[in-house]
Amino acid sequence: MKTASTVRRSNQEWLDALRGPDPDEALSDLRAVLVRGLGYALASYSNVRDSDLEDFAQDALLKILAALDTFRGESMLTTWAQKIAVRVALTELRRRRWRDVSLDKLTGFPDSDFVPDTLADPATGPEQQVIQQMLMSSLGRLINEELTERQRQAMIAVRIHGMPLEEVARRMDTNRNALYKLLHDARQRLKKRMVADGMSSEDFLSAFQAQ
Predict the structure, then answer these.
(1) In a domain, 211, yes or no
(2) Are 201 and 109 in a shared domain?
(3) How confident is the model at residue 25 (pLDDT cuts 50, 70, 90)?
(4) Domain count, the chain
(5) What are 143-200's pLDDT values in tens digits?
(6) Does the pLDDT at position 8 exceed 50?
(7) N or C: which end of the chain has fewer CB within 10 A?
(8) Does 187 reside within a domain?
(9) Nearest Cα to 121, choosing from 209, 203, 200, 199?
């Protein structure tokens, strides 16, 4: 019985089979290769089930077929396909991480509670933590005073909490390019206000660098 581990085709044989009039066998073989490889690549993710691997592989197959003309033969086709599958899987896992997180809840905290755990390092000394708290509190005030509501939501979600751009764009009913523009305009407004208030972006960043 043929298994994923015993499938052997040259790159040209894969291409011919996948582009041929009856690609079902090649698709089934490639899907099995992808599922097996994803099992290894995602072994450290405890929340990934066998059914997830199947779904990731199926989604990857669609992208692989659409991208066959870009394959340049610099590696084995299965290696190239596996990289696509891993990217598809990681993108979906990142999306799931934020699936049940409300954008309003994520960006709705008051100025006094602006310091997120992702930026305030508890390993720093008490004096450094006070400086970080003060700077983050000031930044929170500027964000609330200077930015529009959409700019504020985007800035806090993406730059403070690290939510993926694609997910923020989906939640805000916009697209990636428009979100880039929104964030760019927000940064420019904040930079202008920081300069007017005598704040330096370099000083801010240095306060969160390892001491």
Answers:
(1) no
(2) yes
(3) very high
(4) 2
(5) 888 889 899 888 888 876 777 888 888 888 999 899 999 988 988 888 888 778 776 6
(6) yes
(7) N
(8) yes
(9) 209
Burial call 170-191: b when 16+ CB within 10 Å, e when fewer = bbbeeeeeebeebbeebeebbe
Mean pLDDT across the chain, nearest whole number? 78
Burial class (CB in 10 A: 0-12, 13-18, 19+), 145: exposed
Residue 143: both structure tokens together: 């964000």
User: Which of 67, 9, 59 minimizes the C-alpha distance to 34?
Assistant: 59
In 3D space, the residue among 104, 60, 99 whose CA is nearest the CA of residue 83 turns out to be 60
The count of other CB atoms within 10 Å of the CB of residue 192 is 11
DSSP-derived secondary structure for the chain: ---GGG----HHHHHHHHHSS--HHHHHHHHHHHHHHHHHHTTT-TT--HHHHHHHHHHHHHHHHHTGGG--SSS-HHHHHHHHHHHHHHHHHHHHHTTT--HHHHT---GGG---TTTS-TTS-HHHHHHHHHHHHHHHHHHHHHS-HHHHHHHIIIIIT---HHHHHHHTT--HHHHHHHHHHHHHHHHHHHHHTT--HHHHHHTTS--
Domain range for 194 is 103-206
The answer on 152 and 117 residing in a single domain is yes
Q: What CATH number does residue 11 fall under?
A: 1.10.1740.10
Check residue 61 and give its pLDDT. 95
